[in-house]
Write a structure and sequence with these properties.
By secondary structure, the protein is of the alpha/beta class. The protein is built from 9 helices and 10 strands. The strands form 3 sheets. The chain has a 6-stranded mixed beta sheet, with helices on both faces. A two-stranded antiparallel ribbon has the order 1-2.
Amino acid sequence: MNTSEILAKVRKIEIKARGLSNNIFAGQYHSAFKGRGMAFSEVREYQFGDDVRDIDWNVTARFHKPYVKVYEEERELTVMLMVDVSGSLNFGTRNETKTDMVTEIAATLAFSAIQNNDKIGVIFFSDKIEKYIPPKKGRKHILYIIREMIDFKPESRRTDIKMALDFLNGVMKRRCTAFLMSDFYTRDDFSDTLSISSRKHDVVAIQVYDPLARELPDVGIIKVQDAETGHEMYLDTSSKKLRNAHRNYWLSLQHRLKDTFVRSNVDEVSIATNEDFVKYLMILFAKRG
């Protein structure tokens, strides 16, 4: 993809993502992802119904009448997009690959973040940290992130989610909101590290998958390749036994994954590439709001 094609794609994604964040996500994002807590703002005279625990006794003594402390939400967040760039994300049997959908979701979240004056950064990971973009504010920064997502060439094709979470825990000293975006095709057990991460940060898991992972069509013999290992094999999809085994394997993986998220106290959403991600993000936001 040459420079002009990349810029055209960046612009196209920006128009869509900004439209979604302006018209749909602004309020929901704000209520779904809270700030760091309450910060002291000012003092004012006591009014009937105020909590007596908020009385500022020093100011009250100085002016000989009761004053209370007023607090406001510390709204500013740091948002980290943790983006799986391993080989399996390049797969797609419908109109777009998993990478395409992850890019659109990430861009929409990024524009929602800057509308709320939040900082945003990115961790690109495979089975290594491919690239770290420190959190900053502003449209220019987001366009740089989108451009990187479109044209990024990872060095490795494998996946290590535990390693990525360890990096997050090490690099982010203060609490952040981390969107972990992956198809979660990994044999490694990352549950303990995820539990540690969710105690330090507000972690949200977004699974993006291709419909073929859930259901094999009956189209005869097909050749499939593992995008991360390169291993190839032939499958006879006309076999009902094979299709049932494939579906049961998918269901068992999803059950195990969901159990990991529940035990780690991590909110999650699972989206197929032929589905409307807006609907699923809205459900996620509403659940948290």
